Amino acid sequence: MPLPGYDHLPQGSLADRVRALDDDDVRRILDYERGHADRPAVIEMHLRPGISDGSRRTRRRLRVARG
Question: What is d(CA 38, CA 18) in angstroms, rounded to the nearest whole number?
């Protein structure tokens, strides 16, 4: 995991920590999150343009964000 102790980090501290990661590390975290806790708010927090969680909703949101 790109963030040591990810499972024990409070949800409120994840946004700042993830912001500093590159896209590959964010994808790894998203894959891990979906396979374990699968917290929708955390998944949404990790998404950025160009990174999709594979859901239709996210793909639609990314298309709108890109224009």
Answer: 16
